[in-house]
Amino acid sequence: MTQAAQIRVTRHTPAYWTATFDHPPVNVIGPPTILELDALISQLETDASVRVVVFDSANPEFFIAHYDMFVDKAITSAMTPGRSGMHPWLDVLTRLTRVPVATIACIRGRARGAGSEFALACDMRFASREKAVLGQFEVGVGAVPGGGPMARLPQLMGRGRALEVLLGADDFGGELAERYGYVNRALPDGDLLPFVDAFARRLAGFEKAAITETKAFVDQASLPPDDVFPPALLAFYASVARPETRARSLALAAKGLQTMSDTELRLGHHVAGYVAPAERTPPNPTPTP
Fold first, then answer.
1. pTM
2. Domains located in the chain, CATH noted
3. Coil, helix or strand for 29?
4. Could you read off the pLDDT of 15-64 as tens digits, one per residue?
5. How far is residue 26's CA from residue 126's CA, in Å, rounded to a whole number?
6. What are phi and psi of 287, to 5 degrees?
């Protein structure tokens, strides 16, 4: 049976595309998603007409939840390197930052972990003030973020705030994300889609050469070098293999991770609620004589 596509591309005009994530129940990223993104980015790299692409979601609660935590990590790590020679997830993210097209993440709902990493690789991020939630929750489960937010966030918000996001592993609503520089703007939810559509159509009406060359100069001045990304991904694989990390992940799975549950809706809250067995108070402690 052919697997249903996880990304639906709408070509409003030859110059303006929308790519919609549609992978129920919560839009997790896995190897099939990476392959679809690779194919889409290849089109963006070669199509002479497209000037702007907006990434959004069919699920109003989730832009991209995070990476699929139930996929065998050996399958992910064994994927064939991409064109850059890096792991295909890193390849997708670094190529996305440099495509000769303006890329916009239109964030309504949650964008955590790999979802946040994808949004950070886009040129611009616009979010719903009421419904957007961004975060890097990995440290909360004992893991190292693998997709490079340590390299991207400090340039957007400064070192202190980046460490607050990464080490705190908490959720950031749209308004606070805007104040920190995580997103360009947070707009009232009813205004988000009209604003992004109008802005994208504005860019689509400009000359592609001007967009491409201007973006390339900004990339030169602002993008981290590619060689900072592979070590973090290796650290991610090492960290998720630790028994403590696996225990935290299993505890979240038992509470409904990757389902439409309170655990996913308030993941930043739930990652802080885990208590290791060795740290738990015995149910009937022995009195001290």
1. 0.94
2. 7-273 (3.90.226.10)
3. strand
4. 999 999 999 999 999 999 999 999 999 999 999 999 999 999 999 999 99
5. 20
6. -60, 145
